[in-house]
Specification:
Two copies of one chain form a homodimer.
Chain A: E1 3-8, H1 16-31, E2 35-40, H2 46-57, H3 64-74, H4 76-91, E3 96-99, E4 106-108, E5 117-120, H5 123-130, E6 134-137, E7 141-143, E8 149-151, H6 156-167, E9 172-177, E10 182-183, E11 195-196, E12 198-200, H7 201-212, H8 217-226, E13 230-234, H9 243-248, E14 251-254, E15 268-272, E16 275-284, H10 289-299, E17 304-309, E18 316-324, H11 328-343, E19 347-351, E20 354-360, H12 370-380, E21 385-390, E22 394-400, H13 404-414
Parallel strand pairs in A: 1-2, 1-9, 2-6, 3-6, 9-13, 12-14
Antiparallel strand pairs in A: 4-5, 7-8, 10-11, 13-14, 15-20, 16-18, 16-19, 17-18, 20-22, 21-22
Chain lengths: 425, 425
């Protein structure tokens, strides 16, 4: 008997018919002798519907008070889906009980709309499991120490599932979604993209953070930190395929990278067009300047991704970074009103129409020339590179948004991903 | 400065436009210098939508486990509407905060789908009021001592509002609804029906319990028990009419009956077609038999309304009562399977196609002949009376459902309610 966490996305929960199918799949796992904790998302479209209603009524500028209400409203989507799934399981003759995040409780900080999980009390869940029940827990949400409902931000249900798996020391966390695994890149852009049977935790982290959208990045971080065995698989396989077969499907996120070292140099091409570029020009080049610029940005709860600072001329340098496109206007305002006067920088400029394309692969560590091959490929396509960053397992470039598809297709082909020369396939 | 509780029904909260109008009305009261606690229902149609989804998935026979899930699902309707109203108030520049029942907390027993409020902790609400905020609390729900979400049953938001008003010792509780007050009877059946400017608590209790549907009966009981000044009024008057004018509209439920004693004998005609009649025939007439029959019914959480037991013949009698039509089949089964064998009664019969029509009036206490006038009126219309019960301020008859409209119209006319000879008008 293993303790298994299942996570189902909004599409998998998209109708009563689909919820019934999820219940049948979960019931199958129970009958195979396992203890199940299930973390479903809201029914697809529901979170958008709720936030749409809220947007019609909310004050034009967000405050902590209004974000608190947004979270309370948005959190109801999952509160409905857990109840529905519990009923569907009971109808299958499987004892089940649902909990909202506040009931578990899943304790978070108070950063409304993007809260972070602090701790999960598993007492109640364990008691129910011991009593033979399937426990269904809302994704996406928790409760802060003041008793306010918080949400973890979009895609937060993945994080909830992995956090629950970590807290419960689950044997495996299965993320059921509407894709059947992690691909070398998005098949909608490159039809030749191939599913990876496994991917290292670090590669997955890069793929997720760069926009592969299969898993929320924080869920991958959590999985890595607590070594939660994680599998991404499709919820659209017939519910009654044998449990053993399901265990081999999808993509396994592994922590044993050694066995893959000799394999493909590049595992996949990731991309992200949800970012915007901001440059602070003519920054006095002196110690502490990066903190002076990014400190206020971080304090405003704005996530920064790529950060570039090049060598200076005449004691001044340009400092560039990217933020989520939704934070673009707010970040520009913040810089103009507070950072510019404080630092004595000359000017703030920005461009929201950019995208980031990255090549990702553990193999890169031991292979030279991977980055230059990437730059050559883009050059041959006439694509100008605006920013470059590198890490041990990825190389990212920021380019004009309109070249994104072209860049991804060219790189996918250049790194032989079309051919099936893919790690662990 | 007064502490005022507003309650808004589902129709008043039926769209973002209407919620905005509710916010404007509440803001007007705040600007007039009052402290406001608002208890809104779910947006109209929402509770039905949620329960409809649940019904598609739920096991065919209800259990405590499945009812727990139903409550958790249904309770989200109000959790959305409180958040939306808080946002709409914030957009008006009025500080506001919303709470779900579990956050207040509103403590209830564990009778899922028909829980009863045990206590309300007003600490948090008072602190927010003192901080200048409008506090918005979900109607219809609470939390039991195990931390499970419970609902109070249909119309429970009225009860929540009155209970909050009682706990806070509010100066007045205004129930905004889609009718503009309490009428001598339902104007859809009798176009000549007239609005009552005031009605005694006891009359209101009878009118509500008998199906006037303006207020949930438990809310009236609560109001009476804690002497909460209660006004039923329309939420469809323009939101910007002066507060003083709003205070004179609708129908006030009074506790000072003396001043009305000399007035009309009958204040209104109530009716209810949501009941079903059940008769246990040939019951041995011995002490304890009523309890033997109704004890198991009450244990099954089935509400009983009219109860009739007449004199016996040959040591046996017939025992009749009415239940909600939704409990009809369940009650029949219960009686056949457990009560019949236990009591030695001969047979159980029932009829779901009945209705109850009542004349209600404080004046009845001091006037003879009111009941006989009622019976004569029905007789003249050729309507057969199946059951009769009387109390100090009402006389009710159970008749064939198909005669309901006819009976109500005839009685409304016979007691001069058409003519405007109405208490306190």
């Amino acid at each position: 008997m293993a303790l298994i966490v299942h996570k189902y996305g909004g599409t998998s929960m998209g109708s009563t018919e689909r919820i019934r199918s999820v219940a049948q799949r979960v019931a199958k796992w129970v009958r195979a002798g396992h203890q199940l904790v299930v973390v479903p998302s809201a029914m697809s479209g529901e979170t958008n519907r709720l936030l749409g209603l809220a947007k019609e009524l909310a004050p034009p500028s967000a405050s902590a008070d209004s974000q608190r209400e947004l979270d309370a409203i948005a959190a109801t989507g999952e509160q409905v889906s857990v109840g529905l799934l519990a009923l569907a399981l009971q109808a299958q003759g499987v004892p089940a009980i649902s909990y909202a995040g506040w009931q578990v409780p899943i304790a978070t900080d108070s950063s409304y709309t993007k809260a972070r999980i602090r701790s999960i009390d598993d007492t109640r869940v364990r008691a129910d499991l011991a009593a033979g029940k399937v426990v269904i827990i809302t994704g996406f949400q928790g409760i802060d120490d003041q008793g306010h409902v918080t949400t973890l931000g979009r895609g937060g249900s993945d994080t909830s599932a992995v956090a629950v798996a970590a807290a419960m020391k689950a044997d495996e966390c299965l993320i059921y979604t509407d894709v059947d695994g992690v691909y070398t890149t998005d098949p909608r852009i490159v039809p030749e993209a191939r599913r990876l049977a496994s991917i290292s935790f670090e590669e997955m982290l890069e793929m997720a953070s760069l926009g592969s959208k299969v898993l929320q990045i924080r869920s991958v971080e959590f999985a890595g930190k607590y070594r939660v065995p994680l599998r991404v698989l499709s919820s659209f396989t017939p519910w009654d395929i044998p449990v053993e077969e399901e265990c081999r499907s999808g993509t396994l996120i592994t922590f044993e990278e050694d066995e893959k070292m000799e394999q493909a140099v590049v595992s996949g091409i990731a991309f992200n067009r949800d970012e915007a570029k901001i440059t602070v020009m003519g920054v006095p080049d002196k110690p502490g300047i990066a903190y002076q610029i990014l400190g206020p940005v971080a304090d405003a709860n704005i996530d920064v991704d790529v950060i570039i600072q090049n060598v200076s001329h005449d004691g001044r340098t340009d400092f560039s970074f990217t933020v989520n496109r939704g934070d673009y206007a707010r970040t520009l305002d913040l810089l103009k009103n507070t950072v510019l006067p404080a630092t004595g920088a000359a000017q703030v400029m920005g461009d929201p129409k950019i995208c980031k394309v990255s090549i990702v692969g553990i193999g890169m560590r031991s292979h030279v020339g991977v980055a230059s091959k990437m730059f050559r490929t883009l050059s041959e396509e006439g694509i100008n590179i605006q920013m470059i960053t590198t890490s041990e397992i990825k190389t990212s470039v920021v380019i004009d948004e309109k070249y994104m598809e072209l860049a991804v297709r060219a790189l996918h082909k250049a790194f032989d991903l079309d051919e099936g020369a893919v790690a662990a396939e």
